[in-house]
Design brief:
With about 400 residues, the protein is an alpha+beta fold. Helices cover about 40% and strands about 20% of the residues. The chain is built from 15 helices and 17 strands. Strand 14 and strand 15 form a beta hairpin. Helix 6 packs across helix 7 (about 140-155), helix 6 crosses helix 8 (about 175-180) and helix 10 packs across helix 11. It starts with a strand and ends in a 9-residue tail after the last strand.
């Protein structure tokens, strides 16, 4: 590592450090706790659990989907809950006090619902409290939880007023993500095909106070994905840009962050964290849907150069396609189709050919995908014909 504080930090240098710090340059050694890998990523997006399992598995030697599920449901070192952007994530259970303190301190934007659908701040607090009480020591389906919430609050919470998937959901569900972010709720094991909810593992003395939690989360974000700007943090958290800018000013005034030149513009790193590798990372990696690196690494135009920006993004939004990284940038998309104990991994290259070394590495990465899925994987290089989220 070489100190680069006085020189412009290049994309290649930033990319190399980011990938090193979240086990993409080299996987975590065997025996590394799964929760440590998830912590380095700042959470694994888990709207589709298999994608989260893959995100963790490609970063840790020997880890399979069974290991991730064991950490989630058996030893409870991981929790599946509502994380940044209000989306479902795997988070380390030991870090819940930090996450709950920070996420509940982020200001929310205006409600997207009409006035007659919204809940007041007081009603939202009642719903969250009711959810926490109802889930103490049990796992409930959403229907069962709804009955308990209505019983504890009133019929108004069960009014079918929320448009959702050509149906109407009860009013209380518009704040279910707040219950997750506050620590009142997390996901439990599925009951057949039905999702269940429960209380997360208890943490004492409770969430980290809001300001302290926000400052620490911002510093962790900069250590994992810096150099970055307040706008980058705001996008990652789905937070107001003006609020994020004020947060960065407070951090700078307190000496918690420092400014560095990055690709010809101003950006920030955690104070004292100014060393970057010389050169750029080399190698081939396969990342699944909504992988943390593909979503958080900025500027996005550098991660998705040229034609990759059109092919691998959906309206500029990352995560909709699994991506192939070559030397730290997106150079293709991929899709896997499983049949029994076998899976076919189709990789579509974007505007380039691979060297012989890169072809060998791609084959190794496909084998790793199979290992994580506990299947035998076959590589096909060709066009990915399915659309986003397929």
């Amino acid at each position: 590592m070489t100190a680069r504080a006085s020189k412009t930090i290049t994309w290649g240098e930033a990319c190399a450090r980011r990938m090193e710090r979240q086990f993409l340059a080299r996987p975590a050694e065997r025996g590394t706790p799964v929760a440590d890998v998830v912590g380095a990523m700042l959470g694994a997006h888990a709207q589709v659990l298999s994608a989260a399992e893959m995100s963790v598995g490609v970063r840790a030697a020997g880890v399979t989907r069974a290991d991730v599920r064991s950490a989630l449901w058996d030893d409870r070192s991981l929790v599946k809950t509502f994380g940044p952007r209000g989306t479902v994530h795997l988070l380390p259970a030991a870090e819940l006090p930090l996450w709950c303190g920070a996420l509940t301190a982020i200001p929310t934007g205006p409600s997207p619902f009409p006035p007659d659908v919204r809940v007041t701040a007081e009603q939202a607090a009642q719903i969250v409290a009711a959810i926490g009480d109802a889930l103490d020591g049990v796992c409930l389906t959403v229907e069962e939880l709804g009955e308990e919430v209505v019983a504890r609050t009133g019929p108004w919470a069960g009014d079918l007023v929320m448009p959702a998937f050509q149906d109407l959901w009860p009013r209380w569900r518009q704040v279910i993500h707040r219950a997750g972010q506050s620590g009142a709720l997390c996901f439990g094991p599925n009951r057949g095909r039905k999702v269940t909810y429960t209380r997360p593992p208890g943490f004492e003395p409770g969430p980290v106070p809001g300001e302290a939690a926000l400052w620490e989360l911002a510093r962790r974000y900069l250590r994992a994905y810096g150099p970055a700007t307040s706008q980058h943090l705001a996008k990652w958290l789905a937070a107001p840009a003006g609020w994020a800018a004020s947060l960065f000013r407070e951090l700078a005034e307190a000496g918690a962050v420092e400014e560095v030149p990055f690709e010809g513009s101003r950006a920030w790193v955690a104070a004292g964290d100014t060393e970057f590798p010389d050169g750029r990372v080399r190698g081939v990696r396969l990342l699944p849907y909504f992988d943390a690196y593909a979503i958080a690494a900025q500027p996005r135009e550098s991660l998705f150069p040229g034609e990759a920006y059109r092919r691998a993004l959906a309206g500029g939004q990352a995560g909709n396609f699994p991506v192939l990284l070559v030397d730290g940038v997106v150079a293709g998309v991929w899709h896997q189709r499983r049949q029994g104990r076998r899976t076919t991994v189709t990789v579509e290259l974007i505007g380039r050919r691979l060297t012989a070394r890169q072809e060998r590495e791609l084959g190794e990465q496909v084998e790793r995908v199979g290992d994580v899925l506990e299947a035998k994987a076959e590589l096909v290089v060709g066009t990915v014909t399915v659309g986003p989220h397929a």
